[in-house]
Each structure stands twice: as structure tokens, then as C-alpha cells.
Amino acid sequence: MDCLLFWVEAHPALAGWLQAIGGLIAVAVAIYVPYRQKNDALEMEIGRINYNEKIKIQAILTLVIQINAFLRLADATANKGEGWLHADIDWGYLDSTLEQMKNIDVIEIPDPTVITYVVLLPISIRELQKTGSSFKGKVYETGSDRSLKEFLKLKLELQALLVRAENACTTKIKSLG
What we know:
Radius of gyration: 32 Å
Oligomer: single chain
């Protein structure tokens, strides 16, 4: 260590070089610190946006799962036997779910595919309700009534739409991390 100090004192120009190198390091740090702070702030903002998007899509996914579960329950509790189907569905539950979907601001949904389902699902449910209301509370023999055939067709289409919506929401949630 003594040798190093003696060598530095023996070379007077070395102090200037050390000041120049120190100055360059100070400039580099002065450039890097704000750059790093800006990048960290951007990463935090992206994380916040992704979190908010994920929350919105999870809310939509919850509604999709609720509607799908409701239709499955209606299938399971329907009086099925010897070609008969009891088509009595409590539309009030679906109406409340539709109200929740109305409260979703599609402008704030980040994924166009999910927006498509948020728009199409209420239309499909309303069409199903309209067709189903003509025979609500009645028992029909499967295949004997045109409105029942239409209802069952619309129900299957809605269930397929729900599956696609659930897949789209799940995929988007996974992509957001």
C-alpha cells in the first residue's frame, strides 16, 4: 500500500487523470440514475395496468362461469325422461347477471376478443329468453314444438359461446401474468 501511495505522489499528472476518470464516472451515474428511475416507473405503471386489466377480465370470466353454471343447473334440474323436457328457467338470475354485464365499460377492456363476448353474450341470452318465454312452465315432448327446438338450438349456441368466452378470458388472464 505504501508503494502505491509513493508511486501516486511521484507522478503528479496522475491526479489529473484520476479526476478525469472520476468526472466521467460521475457523469455516467448522473445519466444512469434518472434513466433507471424512469424505467422502474414505467415497469410499475405497466404492472398496474396489467393488474387492472386482469381484474376486469376476471370479473367478466366470473360472470361467464356463473351463466354457464346456471344453464348446466337448469339442464340438470329439468325434468328429463322418456323424451320430455321441462323448460322452466328462472330468468331473474340471468337478468341480474345481464345487469352486471351492462355495468362493464367495454372501452376499458383491453382485449378485442373479450369485448366481442361481452357484447354478444347479452344479445344471445336475450334471444334465448325471448324464445323460452313462450313455453315457460310447460312440459313439452322433445322435438314436438318448433319454439322448443329453437330454444334448445339457441341454448346450445349460447353454451358454445360461453365456452369460447371462458377460453378467451382465461388465455388473456394467463398472458397478463
